[in-house]
Amino acid sequence: RAAAALAGYTGPATTRDGVPVPVLANVQDGEGTRLAVAAHAEGVGLFRTELAFLGRAAEPTVEEQARGYAAVFEAAAGRRVVLRTLDAGSDKPLEFATPPEEANPALGVRGLRVARRDPGLLDRQLDAVAEAARRTGASPWVMAPMVATVGEAADFAARVRARGLVPGVMVEVPSVALLADRVLQHVDFLSIGTNDLSQYALAADRLSADLADLTDPWQPALLALVETAAAAGRRVGKPVGVCGEAAADPLLACVLVGLGVTSLSCAAPAVAGVGARLATVDLPACQEAAAAALAADDPRAGRAAARAVLVRG
Ligand code: PEP
Ligand code: MG
């Protein structure tokens, strides 16, 4: 049944009992956005802006950036676009933005932290986003990666709002999940990056194959942080999505919905599988599966318990 639904998936995604759960796509350029729209993504949930500039020695001009961002806004053709400011550093070093050598780059100057050394880089990027929005008539949401404190969220939100854009932050550091209520006093949405959130919650390098069991997105501690952030969003009526790889696993996507997240964003080829699976489950089953996965002692048991609830018959 799920296979038949997958072949015919055309969005928008809802659970079987009719709860809308937008399934968006992770993209890096206009062409990828066109493919995402063709795959029936309801928009872009994560536009990774740094990927276009890997290997570049010099900062791209505001005009070059504006053209690149406008290409994505145009291709999205009125659908939601969540643009992430440069996530430079660690696994994505940018020569013009990040320090050449750090002992622990994953714990170093990466993401929003680059703005401590060079606030102009962030301001120029936000100017470019605002210009691209003006040219295309788009209303992008703009979020920062690697935020760790309420103060960082407040400072970022002020810069984004000053340009008439909608601010949010990624939940990649456990501190932000724990203080999500206070972060949400400053921003309009949260987007949970499960790839980094699991790395930082389990203290295990996301690039280490030896530690893949620890960074498994079914880890109950990761799911508990997702639940904390989603509950904070519910309390104030602000969206809390997931844009890490966890959202690409159709079963886990149902669990995330059960934990309270309001949208999912994954690679374009995964959109149909997630949307098709959501159409086979009711929200109460997602909630039951989420409770079972949270209560499990390890990822394997959690997945089995969730599967038993979600895939009946
Ligand atoms: C994440 O950390 O989950 C995320 C979506 O960002 P990236 O994979 O680009 O670090
Ligand atoms: Mg990340």
UniProtKB/TrEMBL annotation:
GO cellular component: a single term: cytoplasm
Active site: 243
Catalytic activity, reaction form: L-histidyl-[protein] + phosphoenolpyruvate = N(pros)-phospho-L-histidyl-[protein] + pyruvate
Alphabetical UniProt keywords: Cytoplasm, Kinase, Magnesium, Metal-binding, Phosphotransferase system, Sugar transport, Transferase, Transport
Positions of phosphoenolpyruvate binding: 48, 84, 195-196, 206
Subcellular locations according to the entry: Cytoplasm
Gene Ontology molecular function terms on file: kinase activity; metal ion binding; phosphoenolpyruvate-protein phosphotransferase activity
Cofactor(s) for this UniProt protein: Mg(2+)
All residue ranges annotated as the PEP-utilising enzyme C-terminal domain in the record: 11-281
Enzyme Commission numbers on file: 2.7.3.9
One GO biological process term: phosphoenolpyruvate-dependent sugar phosphotransferase system
Statement: the UniProt record of this protein carries the keyword Metal-binding: yes
Binding positions for Mg(2+) per the UniProt entry: 172, 196
Keyword Cytoplasm: yes
Biological function: General (non sugar-specific) component of the phosphoenolpyruvate-dependent sugar phosphotransferase system (sugar PTS). This major carbohydrate active-transport system catalyzes the phosphorylation of incoming sugar substrates concomitantly with their translocation across the cell membrane. Enzyme I transfers the phosphoryl group from phosphoenolpyruvate (PEP) to the phosphoryl carrier protein (HPr).
Stated family: Belongs to the PEP-utilizing enzyme family.
Protein's name according to its UniProt entry: Phosphoenolpyruvate-protein phosphotransferase
Species name: Geodermatophilus dictyosporus
